[in-house]
Structure formats: structure tokens, C-alpha cells
Amino acid sequence: KHSFLFKIKQVASSADLGAAMGRSRLAATLRAFVPIQRPALHREYDYIIVGAGSGGGHLAYKLSEDPSCRVLLVEAGKQDNTPWVHVPVFYFKSIGTPAYDWMLKTHGPTSGLAGRSLAWPRGKVLGGSSSLNGLLYIRGLSYDYDSWAAAGNEGWAWKDVMPHFRACEDAPFEGPERGHGGPMSVSEATNITDLAERWSTACSEACGVPRIRDMSCVAGHGHESKGAGVAYFSNIKSPDGFRCSTAIPLHEVRSKRQNLHILCNSEVDKVLLNGEKVEGISLGGQEAARVAPGGEVILAAGAIGSPHILLRSGIGASSALEGAGVACQHELPGVGENLQDHLQLRPKFRVNADTLNTQVGGLVKHAVKGGLHWLNAFASPAAWRFGLEFLLKRSGPVSMAASQVCAFVPSRPDLPAPDLQFHFQPLSTTGTPAVYLDSFNAFTASVCILRPESRGRLELQQDGGLRISPNYLSTKADQDLAVRSLEIAREVSQHPLLQEIGAEEVDPPAKTDLEHARRVAETIYHPAGTCKMGPSSDPDAVVDPSLRVHGLEGLRVVDCSIMPTIVSGNTHAPTVMIADKAASLLRS
Fold first, then answer.
1. Of 251, 308, 495, 526, which one is the catalytic site residue?
2. What is Dmax (Cα atoms) for the chain?
3. Is 526 marked active-site?
4. Model-level pTM?
5. 123-133: per-residue pLDDT in tens?
């Protein structure tokens, strides 16, 4: 047996450390099902926030702490009053459902993936993509933020953002790196399995990185591994076992803060400009909302939504706007440029061991199909067993996030920081978005390029829509790393611990090369960078280090679109941090 397994099991079973340290959010989760009444709009607001996702939801929560501050939070999607959002495992049901997902797709000819068009799920619901994502908590690495500061973004180095990471969270970890009492509940993994242990130890030994309890504790300076390691993912869940999207803190306070208005089912058409001053937003038709003198509009609609609103408002490159039939109101060529995403490759390995494929595969199939298929799901003994386990213990498959184990590994030893991330999953899938489990036992060792060099763009079209051109694998470095990442995944699978259970790659290619990578690569749903933060000397920058749109008064962007370079790992926690820092900037 692996000694690490017993350490983790001891933590997971000792009176639930998350429940001991974190506060219950059950009342807020239940309040999500109480309808939010459409408010009678004020004549003016101090802040209008567009988008109630990872950035906007947290920013509204923070700014409305001041009762004298009038805050309007506008969300295009509906209220999050559905179990598909709150029960962890049902993220697979929300993704790809038009009621909660914008259902975006990339442009095949400019995808960089042999003409394939990829689905890009984005949350269209209160909580935004924090209501749809895989519930995985990763901060990124000190290397990421120090690189931002070195590029001229003063105040964004690791030492500057760390206080905001701590302030955001309520985490079940001790130590100076972690925070307690914040609005974002973070829980420790509880689904510890022999298969996950085998893969974790195999990855650690094959890649020469340590096994650790908490990835955040090696993300900073002074750690020998420089951020590399293997750990069970922390999850964005409350101690009650439910998802903690950025909507949950809002449900806790929305009936108490009369200065906070939440407006769902309201898509913002554009911002209202008067010369170089932004005065409000248009909600389509004749309806508008305006800011008071000295007030601000804050776009927090994400890496796709925020630049889309700017472009529709005539803010962007004049040549591109002219081609879309929009008059240029403010020349800002960086809008929609600098698009980055984490591209994943998902090799899967058949094993002689229990996996979710055979444990819940039939249930997932019925749940995805919906309708009368739910009757078959409810008739299954497994549904009752796993459902009761979740209700009574908040554990088991129903409680699981999208991935079980995280590994940050370097592709070669001379790197300043790891450049690959593994997401280990005790399952394998067919299709995209990946929702159908295979009928045989297998695991997936998804691996993504953490800091891609490839850059894409968003282009406004004549019909008002966007062309999404990721331009994946457009540089030699990204191409080589994609191929190398598949080789590393295969090397891990050859470890004796995995060979003991017959690990064998499913449908291995005749040749592991760039063409194969282009055929099988998928997004891991982390678009970023399209409203790049940078000093005024940067011709591609859209916002300055205070997140103010260059050349305009009263307009900021607060979401992952401002990332000059995408962070290493999952983007939800860094986006909440950005919002927390933005609240401090606005208050000052």
C-alpha cells in the first residue's frame, strides 16, 4: 500500500476537516431556489457590473458591503435555481444545455486543429461559468504573476495578489498561504481511491516531482519544486457538499443588502458613450441603466463576452469594426486580440480495476438523454446507493468534481516553472463535450500546455456575432510540447504500479506526431487574454494595471480577459482574485 494513501484517508475521515473549519452554506444553496424579483431600476448607480460570473459575482458581493454604494449586477442568463448547478457531478448536464450555456463554437478553419470546430461552453446563468465549471481550485504559479508585473503591470506580482487569494477563500488548510472566512468555500478531496493513488505515485516518480497535499503551498517562491507536484484537487464546494459558485455568497446577502440590485435575464447590448466618458449600459430596445457622476461601468462578462460588448459599442480596431458595419467610437486595436486557451490532450488507458465507467456509466447515459430516460436512472440500484451516499455523507460519485488529481510537471528539467498540467480522471469518455462514459474500465490522463505561445482572436461579424479563432498549435514550441505531453502520459502509464493492473493505452496512434495531436486535442475551457492588461506603452493593451480601459473614463474590465498571459492551471480562482483586487482598486 502507498503510505500517502493512509495520510490522505486520515485527513478525509477525521471529522471532515472542511466542515470543521468552514462555515455552512446550505441556507444560501437553498435560497438559490427562491426567485429573485426583478428590481425597479434606480435612476443612477455607483457601479454597474455586467456579468455575474467568477469576476462579476465576487465584485458585486465586495462592493455592496458598503451600504452607501448602489450596485447593479446584470446577468444575461437566468437564476441558478436548478439542481444541475448545485449538485457537483451534474456539471456534465449543465454544459451543453442551452438554458445554462452560451453554446459557443470555434471557427473550424482558424481553430488550428485540422479544421475541427470545438464547443466552448460558457455559463449563461447566475454565477456564470463558476456555475458550470468542474469545481477545481488552482491559483496558478508565482511565475505567472511575476511575469505580469515584469511586463509593466505594477501591483500584480505574486506578493501583491497573494493577500487577495487569501481574502477570497474559506479553505480547510492551515498555513500562511491559505485563507479562512472568505466568501468562496474550498474543500479538500474526499474520494480517495486505489487507482488514483497508483497514478499519483506513478506520475510523481516518472516525472520526478513530489507528492503534496495542497498545490497552493508550492505555488509561491522558495519551494524546491518551483511549483511542480502531484496532489488531489481542492474543490470549489461548501462543507455541505454543494457547489460554491460566486452566486452563493450573493444569495446569502441579497435580501439584506438593499443597495444591491440583481437583474437576471438581461443581456447588455453595449455601453453608452458620451465622448470619452462611459455613462451607462444599453439593455436593448429603450431600456438603459446609468451611473452617477463619478460612477463606473465594469465589464465582467468573461473572455468572450467582455470584448464582444466593447466591439458592439464601437470600441476596438477601426478597420475590423468597419468590416462588421459598426462605427468606431474609440480606437483600441487590442480588443479581441491575444486570445489564449489551455489545449488538452486526453489519452485514456484501459485497466483491470474499478472505474466510474462501469460504476455509473449507465446512469450518466440516461441522465444525459433526459426525459423519460430518468425513469431508467431512478430504477437503478446504483442510483439509490450513490444518491443516498451523497445525501448522508456528501461523498461518493455524486460529490465528485471533474477531475480527481492534479499534477504540475516540467517537460524538461531546465524550465523556470512546470509547463504541463495533468488532470487525472477515474473514467474515460467518448464525444465532445465529453459526457458519454466508455463501457470498459479505463482512466484518462488529460494533459494540457500551461503557458501556450499560440495566440488567437475574436472578430465581430456583420450579424453581430463573433468568430472565435483560437489558432491552436500555431508555434513550433506548442507543437513540440503537445507531442511531448502525450509521450509523458504514456511514460507514466508504464510505471509498475499501473502495469500491475494492466494499464494499456486505448487506440494508440500508429505515430505520435503533430498531426495526431491536431486530430485529438480539445479545449479545457479556459479562454483568456482578450482585453489584455498592460501599460499605455503597450499598443495591444486594452486596460491599464488598475483595469481601466485605456483612453476612456468610467469603464473597467474585471475578468480573465485582462490576463496578459494565461495563468498556469484552472482560471476560476485567479479570476475571483482579480475581482477581489479590483474591489480594492475601486474603493481607493
1. 526
2. 69
3. yes
4. 0.94
5. 999 999 999 99
